[in-house]
Amino acid sequence: MALQTLFLGVIVARPILSSILATLAFLLIRSLYRIYVHPLSHIPGPTLPKLTSLWLYYHAYVGDEASTIHKLHKQHGPNVRVSPNEVDISDADAIPAIYVSKGGFPKAACYANFDMDGHKTIFSTTDAEYRSPRAKAVVPLFSTKALRENEAAIWGCVDSMVERLKEEAETKRAVNVLNLTRSLAVDTVSTHLFRENYDGVSERGPVLSVSAFVDAFVAVGRFFYLPNTAFVWLEWAVGKWAADRKTDDSRTLVDKFVGNLVTNTSTKSATYPGRLLAAGLSYSEVKAQCKDLIFAGTDSTGMNLAIIMRNMVLFPKKYQKLKEEVNSNIALGADAEDAQALPYLNAVVKEGLRISMATPTRLPHVVPTGGWTFKDTYFPAGSIVGCSAYELHFNPIIFPEPQSFKPERWLNATEAMSKYWFAFGAGSRACIARNLATLELQFATERLARSNVLEGVRAVQSEVEIFEWFNSKVKGERIELIWK
Ligand code: HEM
């Protein structure tokens, strides 16, 4: 009887055993292939990411991707294999080929994880032909001419933010300036591109009403590298079992704001939605493209301005220098220069953009047919390559003491510094709104100097830590200042 049971057990176990052995054999062969035979096997890096993408998924999820890869570059040189098919490059000479020449290499498929409400956006699409008519329709709104024509309205947003800051300062409580700068960012985007001020700066709640919507989208960065099918299932599961009220309310609010906006926009209107409707896009897609701007334009500029404010407080002598420049300019009366032309002010903004790490990680693009040889290293077609702001901006040879806020370094900028400055990306897929974002930062910095509002202020946190997701997130969502 015992013999019979053993015999039966062997018969049942055999297929299971065979499957386990087959799986192990497959994994072993695949591992050996990926390490020794794969077309990227000549690229250095630690063993684990050569074997599996799970290493990259993990670091993206916990939010230490950029700093972990930074350490690997120190060990392995300018090219580091960060997943079986992906390489992080720290050499800025790679930028022209990957991002600029002939439109650069196409964006990697993982950008689809940033699609909005089932629509590809100007940001998320990997298809140049899909993007082209949409970008063409809206690009004029970001030109220097369009911004100049609407300067008064943008100054208006900045002035309201500074007034609100003064009001908050009176309370002598710690002020979360990140919330205020995010409010300014959404007001600037809506005022300039939608011609309807969202007026976040006037909100009296502890947190800007669009924040939870923006945060939910920023958190997509944790799963940026997941294959889209896995991402879609995950998103569905989160929506079903882990939805939270705050995010749902914020989403509904943004949806309503954008819905009203698009419904009341005519194809003749020269606004962002008007131009997209005139280009023949559906209402539903135009709504998605507008929501995408609220996501892309809120945290990025908000984070930068809050970091500039914090550094002006941490370094009173630099704030003094900025104020002297701005006040001397004001004294010129009718001959005063535009804020954009003030050298130290611009250096403050540029250094803020360098150090704030709004988009710290690699911008992954796909090597096209024919492959690519960069400085004697061959990258086969289909492999994913990219540079990151973290790697380029924190290069100690180009930017000595890279983690320190030193606007002075930009007063005599070298060619290499300009080459390594990657805050808005580069080439045809660089930030479409870089002129608008820069102008907002320049105007706000001017007013912070002119108003003296940061005089005698103390920074609350000793350090500001971030989750290094595609769009970074400040841990605790607070950058606080306190007026003594
Ligand atoms: C300081 C503020 C900002 C920073 C640092 C920033 C950074 C970037 C970067 C690095 C990219 C390239 C992403 C990639 O290639 O994957 C990008 C693209 C983009 N940004 Fe910004 N951005 C800022 C402000 C804004 C604002 C205010 C808006 C909207 C009004 C905006 C809208 C976009 C869009 C639509 C794209 C996609 C462009 C394309 O693929 O054609 N950004 N941004």
Automatic annotation (TrEMBL):
InterPro entries: Cyt_P450, Cyt_P450_CS, Cyt_P450_E_grp-I, Cyt_P450_sf, Cytochrome_P450_monoxygenase. Keywords: Heme, Iron, Membrane, Metal-binding, Monooxygenase, Oxidoreductase, Transmembrane, Transmembrane helix. The chain crosses the membrane at residues 6-29. Its cofactor is heme. GO terms for molecular function: heme binding; iron ion binding; monooxygenase activity; oxidoreductase activity, acting on paired donors, with incorporation or reduction of molecular oxygen. Heme binds at C431. CDD domains: CYP58-like (cd11062). Belongs to the cytochrome P450 family. This is Cytochrome P450 4A10. It comes from Clathrospora elynae.
